[in-house]
Structure formats: structure tokens, C-alpha cells
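Case study.
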Amino acid sequence: MRAAPGDGGRSARPGSRLLLGATAALVVLLGSIASIAQVEGPPPQACDKPTRSLSLFAEQLGPKRFGYGLTPSTASIPGPTLEMLEGECLAVTLVNETDRRLSMHAHGVDYTVASDGTPMNHGCVAPGHARTYVFAAHAPTTRPDGSLEPGSAGYWHYHDHCMGGSHGTEGIRSGLFGAFIVRRPGDPVPDVPTFVVTMGPGMTIDLLKAPDTPVFEAAQGQRVEFEVIGYGDLFHTFHLHGHRWVDDRTGLPSGPDDPTPVIDNRTVGPADSFGFQVIAGEGVGPGAWMYHCHVQGHADAGMSGIFLVTTPNGQVTPAAAAALRRWRESEPHDHRM
Amino acid sequence: MRAAPGDGGRSARPGSRLLLGATAALVVLLGSIASIAQVEGPPPQACDKPTRSLSLFAEQLGPKRFGYGLTPSTASIPGPTLEMLEGECLAVTLVNETDRRLSMHAHGVDYTVASDGTPMNHGCVAPGHARTYVFAAHAPTTRPDGSLEPGSAGYWHYHDHCMGGSHGTEGIRSGLFGAFIVRRPGDPVPDVPTFVVTMGPGMTIDLLKAPDTPVFEAAQGQRVEFEVIGYGDLFHTFHLHGHRWVDDRTGLPSGPDDPTPVIDNRTVGPADSFGFQVIAGEGVGPGAWMYHCHVQGHADAGMSGIFLVTTPNGQVTPAAAAALRRWRESEPHDHRM
Amino acid sequence: MRAAPGDGGRSARPGSRLLLGATAALVVLLGSIASIAQVEGPPPQACDKPTRSLSLFAEQLGPKRFGYGLTPSTASIPGPTLEMLEGECLAVTLVNETDRRLSMHAHGVDYTVASDGTPMNHGCVAPGHARTYVFAAHAPTTRPDGSLEPGSAGYWHYHDHCMGGSHGTEGIRSGLFGAFIVRRPGDPVPDVPTFVVTMGPGMTIDLLKAPDTPVFEAAQGQRVEFEVIGYGDLFHTFHLHGHRWVDDRTGLPSGPDDPTPVIDNRTVGPADSFGFQVIAGEGVGPGAWMYHCHVQGHADAGMSGIFLVTTPNGQVTPAAAAALRRWRESEPHDHRM
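After joint prediction, the assembly is written out as follows.
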């Protein structure tokens, strides 16, 4: 059984590459997972004892394409959406089935330097190794001095911080990222899985270009949730047709006189993230509603997708079907007329 | 009388161009307007019956320059500022007097796919044709499940979504955009027409460079309103000298302890928009106050203009007149010393 | 005794350059300061009588490097952090010890056109001259019409607006900028001096690249304050590891149900600024926590620094010392593996 080294990156050399098949990997991993608690230092201060745990398998998906998955051979881009409730303590064991050094760095949640996921804090995982990161989500708290510590709830994300340099630039460029949502008890939850829109790296959505970008589907009246995350070197703006949201923590108004702006377009810089819930087709009906980067050159280069709102009983209207067809035919670049 | 086709773009060919004089256009338009209700499909769900209607005339203003106007031959860049109150339903008949396919896509308000203004939803208007879009503005509403739907009030905008591709990139680049303000009953209104600052496309303000950019004038003590909108491929920052605003829906504080940031500089990405009201010269007096993009290279390239605050009785102070003169002489690029 | 001319820039020619030694400068300055009140026009409306005053000495620090300092020969990049309380009126005498025309333009506070610091408003200071700018910070106020004027409290900044053109582009590029914090009475104050992070011009932090960028140090449990300011032509995102803040005026929640987003990453455009307070290592412990621009290419080019949290009694943990060493060795570009 091989231990998870403190700094996988430093000791790893190209020669140490292990070409693991799925079965072999699993065996190695189970071993690695079991050993984590002993290998790591003192329990992270962020939380004493994980209340929940999961594994994240990093795999190569193709040339210059890597992804995370919850089980072996299910890696995707973006990776699985992780969720926590404020008050939880989550242990995530990252299993590196690739031949590259990589890690997981989380935004928003609490973690000690041991779970920072950076080369400088010895947070990388060498090829064929595993490592457990521990993340805490805390409720808003009153400090001894009477001031308030804000809670962890938010539309956060996680990504590699090791591949190709100190900042994980190559890992991010290759697909090693995903949404990480922390909810406050009582927050409304969506009726369908969260729609994750990663803008960038480059002029892509989830590393794809239209018409291969996601078509998110919901029935009119369903509560749906978007999370938008930026990556890479470019700045984008996220625009959704026919729907708007409040520019706050949840996208929902805190009352009828809430002075927060209601928006349908937002600047998204690298590693910025936000989320919101809307009622599909509320006040506007079913149809194929475009979401896209509103940087014109980016939209024209393929940064658009579709939010497909069906009738309440789940039927795609003929107009929506036709619109979807036209979108697929015209993207990524329609310069007719 | 020619009907407004469902998809003007698909059937339109360069050969169908109609060179309409102002008079001819008006005749055609009145006819088109009358026919709209029959040609369109079922009433849009966004609102059953328009409470108000207006026409928007798209015209070519020069080489690569197009604009919208409320009457024939009055098109401008930006187009006319449209205003609604929450609770209103507005029908806008877009009359295309150009020889290019184009549309109107609105941000923020409610509309069905029939009023989406996109090629994919058959929302374009062929040259010489007209089409009516219907927009609703709704008040904050409590849903049956007890959650709140935010209201439509906001500093929104509208723009072409058809010319030169699926995203209207050429239309936007040519001037087909304008402000679209939705007010909540009770919102304060400015004493003078809203100052609309469109940043971009390119390094322009309202497609102009200093010193040809707008000089907005108000008397000290007047309540004035700015709306700032981004377009194109570049990101900008809007800065106003001598005045600040609250970064919320109205630019006004909701109370003395409002924790929202007060700002005088804001990032503006493509299709981002915001607005605010200030009292001209409040606490700082009359003068020529610069507004500009704070991206240094953009400011130096001509992205600046003047907010000219006169004395309360409307006189331009000698200092302001001299400053205005110096600004005009030195822009767009003063590299002396 | 030489008077401070109304427009130093116009009358200044390269021939007027004065090479002042520190002693000579001080003599000239004291004279200049004394003369300011007579030379300037009517008292600025922003406030009748300064309640406090200070001098700011502009000096050349090297080729293409200039800075501001509170005393002669102490200029730095960024310049000294200025602080005001709402209700104060501050007179800042800018003493130009360089051979270039320059100024001070402040964001956020109140000032008349005489203190605008722009060429167009005759606000530049010629080489060897001095000039006093007057700034007011006001509390939230109820206007005669019942509406509210927001207060001046905020994380603002100041910078040159004259060197190299109408917008001070060369002065900003060379280091003529600093933080300007206005507090509301009752606002909590940090336990250590504010950490100022200027992002840009270019791909720099405080005009430096890692590993020469600031290492900010605090003991676990101390209340620390960051102010982040953007400059130049590029857009950045500021990310801090292990700590988050509320995206409002102070970075602190206004209550346990505050709906404002909690963030650890924010877009920073040129002249955007924001600040926040956090408790060092709260819930995460001591360590070397990276802060960096999350634009990947910018981070890789050196836009990162360290927030070094020691133990409560001020000791750097071995892990933090090692991490700091690794960061110094690997920056600005670690492409190993």
C-alpha cells in the first residue's frame, strides 16, 4: 500500500507514472483512502471530524482533457457539483488516476493549509496517489467581541491548483473544475439538478462551443438553479434570455422592497462565481431561451447555449423545437445577411 | 399592404431591399402597424393587452451607422430611452427602414419567445417590414408557494440581435441600442432627461470619441440620472468626477445605515447596465466634471465626456467654461509634458 | 517664496525644473504651504475650514518610478494610506519634488473643481511647486426633500491625473497612487495597518511581481483589513485563500440574515476599489495563505503574494515558513511537472 505523500509534486517524476486500469486503480485507491488519516498531520482545525465523505476521481478524458468524477470512469467537465449544508464537515478524497500531478482547491469553504491544494502548501497529489481534503461549512456566528462572522453559504467552486505550475493553469485549461454549493438550512432547493455554466477557459462554455454546449431543460413552473463560474484568462458576461435574478447570495429577493439590483447580465471574471434560482418560463412561457456570453466576439465564437422550457407537462413546443433546430444550424457563427 | 413575416431574416435577400423615403415609409408603417395584431400568433403570455404602444424606426445614418428613432428620420445613437412603469404592458412596433435584417431584443422586461428578437426565435424584421414586440413590466409578486418574484424595475436596455449574425454583433457595432428604464411607482424621477452613456462598442462613448462625446448639462441642485451600458468586445470602467452613488437598483441609499457600497467607479462589461441619480454639484459646486472610462488606454483614446454643472440659475461659471475649452482642446490625447 | 500657480502644467516647461535636495525642498515647501490659502480662490464649497492637514511629497524613485510620501524622501509605491472619518475636512498639500507635472485626484470624497486634480480644471502641480487640495467626508444626510444623501465612507483611493496626458496614465503607470479610506464613526478598525493590494498597472501587484510582492503578516485572531485597487489597462480578479468577506461597504455582514453574497474572489477593473476586514486564520488556522490574481496568465506572470498568519503569539509555524520558501522559489512561474 502506498501512502499519500505530503507533497506529491516534489517527489513525482515522469518516471513514476503509473498506468492504472480501472480495477487496479480502485484497489490502490481503497488502500490510499484507508491510509489518509494516518498520513496527514493533526486534524484540520476547520472541523474536527468529517460528517460526510466522498471520493473524487481525476481522470484523463482525452488529449489535453481531464475531469473529476464521483466514481471511477465517470469523470466529466465540469466535474460533479458538490453540495454542503452550513454546519457540515466534508472529507473529499481525491484519487489521481492520471499521470500528472494535480489537486483540488476549494473556494468559499473553510480549510486548513493542509487542504489548500496548492504546491506551496504541499497540497498536490502525485500520479497514482490519493489524498483527503477536509472542508467545513459554518453558519453565521457571533464572535466573542460581538461582531459577526458571515456563514459559508454560497455558489462556490473547486479546481486544480497544481497542474502546469503554481496556479493550476494547465489543469483548469484542461477541465479540472466544478461547482461547489453551500446551502443555508432553509434555502430553497431546485426541482432539477443545478445547471452549471463555466465560462472559459478561452471562449468556451464547459470547454465546449455551440452547438455542443449544454441544453438545459425544465418544465414551465419548475424551480431551476444556475451556477455560473469563470475560468481562464478572459472576462465574460453571462446573459440569460427571458429570465432575471436578484444580484445577491441566492438570486432571490429578501423582500418586496429589496433594493438589490435585478439583473439578467453579469460580468464574470476568472474564478468569479454566482448562482440564482428562477421559475422556468415564469411570466414568459415555454420556449428555447438562449443563454450566452454577451461579449459579442465570444458569443459569435460559440459561447451560447439553450435553456429549453417545456410545457408544464414536459412537452417541447413546436416553436421551441424549431428554434432549437435553427440555433444548432446557425451556431457557432451565423453571418448570413 | 405587406405583412410582417414571422422570420424576416430567412426570406430576406439583398434583392428585396426597399429604399423608402420618409413619406413612403410612414405609409407602409401605418399599414404594418395596423396588421400586426393579426399576423402574430396568440397573445404573448407576458401580458394580454398592451396598455401603451409606440413605434421604433430603424434607419441607416451613414456608412456602418444605424439608429432607432421614435419617428421617421429622427433615429439616433443611442436610440431613444424607453421607459415603463411596473404594471405596464408596452407594444413596440419596430419599423425597419433599412436594407438590412434587424430586430429589437430587450433586457429585463418580460416577453414571450415571439418578442425575443433573435433569429432562432424568428424575431428578426426584414428590410421594409415591421413587427410588434410586446413587453411587460411587473411589480414584485408573492408566488403561490410564498416565495417572491422580483419586480421588473431596473436600468435595462435594448439592442439589435439579428444584424450580421445570431447575436446582432454588426447591429450593435453600428449603433442599434438604447436605454430601457423600468421604474417602480414611487421611484424618484430626474429633473432632466436621463444621461445615457454607452461604453463601447470599441473605445467609444455612444460610438463617439472625445471631444465629440456628450456634454451633459444640469443646474446645481437638480436631480439628474445616469444610465451606463456596455457593448461590444471590451470591458470598461465608468468613473464620474465629484459625484458618487450607491451600488444598488436606484443608486440611492435605502436608509442611513445601508451597508451597500457607495462608489464612483464601476466595471461595465458588454450588456451590463446600471443607473443612478445624483444631485448635480451636491456638496461640490458647479463646474465641468469629467466622466470617463478609467481603463487608461481607453480614456486616452477618447472615452471621456463632461458633466457640466451650472449655477443654480443655469449659468456656466467662467471656470467651467475654461475647463470645457481645455478639455475640448486636449482630447482625445494630451501628451504634453 | 514661490507661489503655487493655478495651473502648474501650462506654465511649466522642462527648463523650469528644480532639482531640490531634501532640505531645500522642505524650506520651499513650508513656504508654499503657508502661501496656499492666499493663492487659491474662494474656499472650496466641499468644506469651509480644514479640520486636519498633511503634506504629500511626490518624488522620483527610479527610472519610470514615482511615489508619494508623507515626509520628504519617504515616498513609496503605493503611496501612504490616507484615512478620514466622515465629518472631517482634510487639506492635503502636494509638494512636487520631481521634474514632471503631476497631481492628486481623489476618489469618493467631496471636492470642488479646484481640488479635482485634472489638467482641465487647472489641478496640476508644476515641478518644484506645491498645491493644496481640500477634501471633505460627510455623513449620510437627509436632504430638504426628504431623500438621503449617502455618506462618504468607503475604500477609496487617490492617484495622479496629470503626468503623460489628461488622464495621468504615465503617473499611474509609474506608481503615483495610494489608498484613501473613509470610515464611519463606529466602524471597526484593524489591529494592524491596512494591507493595500494594487492590481496593475500591467500584470503587477504594487508594481511588483512575485516573489517581490508584499507578504502581509498578522497573528491568528487579529482583525486585519485589505484594500484592493485596480489600475492600468487590464482587468484582474482578486482571490484570497482561506478567507472570505461580504461584498458590501465594509466586508462585514450587517446581520445573520444579510443576503449579500459572501465572496473570496472579485473582478477588479481599473480604478475599482473595495476593502474588507477578516480575522486572520479564523476557522482555518495559521499558515501561508496565497492571495493572487485569478486570471491564470496574470498569476503565472507574478501576480501573487502571501498573507502570512502566525500563531496567536506571533510565531511563524514551520509549515508556513516552508510554504513561504517554496512560494519564493517557484514564483513567478513554476512549470515543473
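Observations recorded in class. Residues 86 and 144 of chain C are 20 Å apart (CA to CA). Residues 1-44 of chain C have pLDDT under 50 and may be disordered. We will return to this complex in the next lecture.
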